[in-house]
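Help wanted!
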Amino acid sequence: MNWGLILSNSVYTAISANAIAYMLVATGLNVHFGYTGLLNFGQAGFAAIGAYSLSIPISRFNWPWPCAVLLVIVSAVALALLLGFTTLRLRADYLAIVTIAVAEIIRLSLNSVRFTWLTGGNDGLQGFTSFMEKLNPFPQQGIWLWKQKIDGYRLWLLVSGWVLLMVVATLVYLLMRSPWGRVLRSIREDEDAARSLGKNVFAYKLQSLMIGGAIGAIGGVWLVLDKQSSQPGDFATTFTFFSYTIIILGGVARVKGPVIGTMIFLFVIQFVDISLQQATKTTPSDPTPLLPTWLIDQNNYAQLRFMVAGFALAALVVFRPQGIFGDKREQAFDVH
Amino acid sequence: MRIDIAKSPLRKGAGVLGLFLAVSFALWTPSAQAAQEDGTITVSVVERASGDNGQAKNPVAGVKIRVQGAAGSADGVTDAKGLAVLNVPQTGKYDVSFDVTSLPKGVAVSSDTKTTASIDFSVGVSVGTGKSLSFFVGSDTRATRGRWGLLPQTLVNGIKLSLILAICSIGLALIYGTTGLTNFAHSEIITMAAMVTFWFNQNGPRWPLLLAAPFGIAASALMGSAFELRVWRPLRRRSTSLTSMMIVSIGMAIGTRYVYLFFFGGRNRRFVQYVGDPEIDFGPVGITPRDLGIMIISAIVVVGFSIFLLRTRFGKAIRAVSDNSDLASATGINTDRIILLVWALGGGLAGIGGVMLGAATGVQWDMGNVILLLLFAAFTVGGLGNPFGALAGSFVIGMFTELWTWVFPNVVELKTLGALIALVVILLVRPEGLLGQKERVG
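Answered by r_m:
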């Protein structure tokens, strides 16, 4: 077992561009669920819309990248408006199911053979990251984080991503401290009370949906920039559910919740995964792996991290709903 | 936070997890098992003569079949049923061909007839050491049916899907009605039955499907009851909010699903029986005996369960708890017992659905999750928590899904899309669902 590599790789995973994508998507979800109390189960749909609004115009129609980035925001807001006008009139449990349905409609359409000419179907789209490579100020050979090599492009995504994340997190922090943010919380706590004070609850919910959705779409962009490929399989419903795990882990309705939650979540997942990978590995010189093959082998060790993630979500909600750093008064779980 | 281990649901949860692990261990088969065994290839030669509906199939006897592969070859002649069973030394890759000159007089080979095919034991849906394939001779007249000719078949497929959805979603609706929980782990209860049945059918005692199925259904009912006793009842006692419980069920569903994948593998596998049976013709539609059985049994279960809900004491008690839990409790109904009954019944019904789904489309680790969204669509469209609404919703969603393939035959892979769009549109027009009660909403 190469513990140095395992640890450095797990640490890198917790702060990488991929982690930043999760942090952004979860921050968006935190605006919906944590602050406004909207049970949005379709956050993966926002991320997918963001990712494909970048990749389709650039790799299919050669748009300049600032236009594509603009489209990312516009289409996220459009999806929020569509979702809002259709579902915000519904009860919370209906809202959950309709948002899942809409996210799946988006993913299935992106996956469809019918639209391969546009979306690339199951194989997805590549070749939309050259603008980011051109902007990269770091040398191509990159740096070493202990035993983990980070290439120049990933380092650039990491640094620029953290700057972007800080800007977004600060904006969310300021927004939630403003009178506008206080109205959102009052809607979460008691919608009828907010309405009786003359607040237009529907409009506030719609604005929350738009802002959180746009942040989620930017998260989707970072996800596909890191992978250098946008594939519909990345935007399945589990992506949304892991975002819930993340914000509950880090503390609901806290700005740093999604950031800390992502770091813990991805560190644990990656640590479990890569340790098992090492423990089940066989080499020609050493044909017996560390763990017996009747228990676990090369073909099925990868499932263990998802078991951990799933049962961890259930256990967290039962035993520590305020997360690790959360405030119990801000649980936001009693969404009606 | 201090956790009292002895009393905490953690220990109970660990018990449930242990149960899953034990059952899943039992399901687990070493993947390399089939590699060295002898294999059999069953070849059938069928004449597609143009009968009344262009579908009549006649077996062709006396046709010479040759199987050739790296490990050896085998020859055979088809019998009166048009079948030839060939034993091959190893389960590997084989090329199968038939001798065109040995066809009896009057049986012609048309331009679209394939005379060779290849078989690979390591791929495909059928498990074990037996493989089968069919050669069709005569001209294919199926395509001449036209768009409207295909409609009856589509409707039959729609009814089949609707009935399976109905069986699975009644439990979902009853659980929602009595406890308020949207149970995302229902999909894993469905898969559980199919997996346990598969074990009894294929790995363990190798019983026929009809004998193995009750054990699978019982496993699902047990799983539902265990969930209620070990997870949901303690959570209700702690007055955990419904949103939290919904998220707990999501976590349990994801975790359990990957336990299945860990032990069962990612392949789609078939039960031993009822694979590749010829269709029975009913005028414009052809139904395999398996699908006919699925439809008849589901219809009986659905009708029987409706009568149970409407007429029996327990059924009335369930509906009373569903309507108003406090009032039911005040009239002397033991609500906890009724809720346990609902979980056992809902789990058992989901199990029946799971076995049928497994027979129809194969057993797979995420088979429940694949139809979960359709189930949610069905029970949402019908009006949350109303079992008869779930029935109606299942028919709307099932028919929409299959009719989508008829209206848009070239986007078949998007057939779930039709159902989801139907869900969104129906909720826009009728936010409380088809049979739901009007409630003031935001």
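OP: Thanks! One thing I noticed: Chain A has a mean pLDDT of 90.
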